[in-house]
Amino acid sequence: MYKISPSILSADFSNIKEDILKTVEGGADYIHLDVMDGLFVPNITFGAPVIKKLRKITNKPFDVHLMIEKPERFIEDFKDAGADIITVHQEASIHLHRTITQIKSLGLKAGVSLNPATPIETIKHLLNDIDMILIMTVNPGFGGQGLIKEMKEKVMELRAIIDDNNLDIDIQVDGGVKLDNIEELKSWGANIFVVGSGIFKAKDIELETKKYKQKLIQKDS
């Protein structure tokens, strides 16, 4: 199943409710929430209290991407705020398996994210425990960056591993996803696509979301 997860990092925060609802009307599958602490990545965004407020806007699954150091400290806070999926970085959690177990014990889906320079081998021991792997196709921290096309081999390798072992794991890509490259990313083997500026900087957010969805439906037979 191919899904779109609009990243509100690129939304207009003075008009955030309307922006989110426009993506929902356009057929968004998830709402992607990038939590940054200014330490793991060179940017600061928002935390659990903001997500708890946003939870009132829609019942779409909240896809919470923790770009923070020692994420295990805050898993319960984000669960209580309304997260449905929590993704943590391999590079940020010393005891990654324990953190994944913690997320799953709360009834949430668990994801692991890999920065561009981090090899798949670092999480092979976790493949039976996680629901999603997020391949960063930019260096994390800021929206609006260009896609690192060298991630093609990484995504394709991961898809082969998942398929060869009959694993039920989603592959999400985040960074530089645009209307003119989403079909290529789909061909690499990704099935969940985080889109930020490509949707939220459009004149018509709802229509643009529909365009991304249509791109994924095409040839999906």
TrEMBL record:
It comes from Senegalia massiliensis. Binds 1 divalent metal cation per subunit. GO terms for molecular function: D-ribulose-phosphate 3-epimerase activity; metal ion binding. Its EC number is 5.1.3.1. It comes from the Bacteria. Pathway: Carbohydrate degradation. SUPFAM superfamilies: Ribulose-phoshate binding barrel. It is an enzyme of class 5 (isomerase). One of its GO terms (biological process) is pentose catabolic process. InterPro entries: Aldolase_TIM, Ribul_P_3_epim, Ribul_P_3_epim-like, RibuloseP-bd_barrel. Its cofactor is Zn(2+); Fe(2+); Co(2+); a divalent metal cation. Catalyzes the reversible epimerization of D-ribulose 5-phosphate to D-xylulose 5-phosphate. Belongs to the ribulose-phosphate 3-epimerase family. PANTHER family: RIBULOSE-5-PHOSPHATE-3-EPIMERASE (PTHR11749). Keywords: Carbohydrate metabolism, Cobalt, Isomerase, Manganese, Metal-binding, Zinc. Substrate binds at S7, H65, G141, F142, G143, G144, D174, G175, G176, G196, S197. A divalent metal cation binds at H32, D34, H65, D174. Transmembrane segments: none annotated. It catalyses: D-ribulose 5-phosphate = D-xylulose 5-phosphate. The active site is at D34, D174. This is Ribulose-phosphate 3-epimerase. NCBIfam families: PRK05581.1-4 (NF004076), rpe (TIGR01163). One of its GO terms (cellular component) is cytoplasm.
